[in-house]
Design brief:
Elements: E1 5-8, E2 11-17, E3 23-29, H1 31-47, H2 53-71, H3 77-89, H4 92-105
Antiparallel strand pairs: 1-2, 2-3
Helix pairs in contact: 1-4, 3-4
């Protein structure tokens, strides 16, 4: 008997069956890893609030790019595309507001 779900390396692995009836394993970012990333971003923003806005943007882009590259699997597109679209609307201001709002409310990614 296979386990239904388990967490490993920051992913939630969901076991199931695909449309043809074969075994399928879907990996999506775990809630814990999303919260850890958002906490790191919020902490970094607090420590580097004195930096120029353009420099903060460059560093945040690197942080987000690394997160998306690690969690950018096929089944993660829906979860990550919403965050990417919201952060590109108004650049830095939306990203900072979203990170602080999500971190303070304890919401998931």
């Amino acid at each position: 008997m296979r386990p239904e779900t388990f967490e490993f390396l920051g992913f939630k692995h969901v076991c199931g069956v695909d449309r043809s009836g074969k075994f399928a394993l879907v990996r999506i970012p775990s809630v814990r890893s999303c919260r850890k990333f958002l906490a790191r971003v919020r902490e970094w923003l607090g420590k580097h609030s004195h930096w120029k806005r353009r420099d903060q943007q460059k560093h945040l882009q690197l942080m987000l790019r690394g997160f998306y590259q690690y969690f950018g699997l096929h089944h993660c597109e829906r979860k990550l595309s919403g965050c990417a679209a919201r952060s590109n609307i108004n650049g830095f201001a939306v990203c900072v507001a979203e990170v602080s709002a999500i971190s303070s409310t304890g919401a998931t990614c």
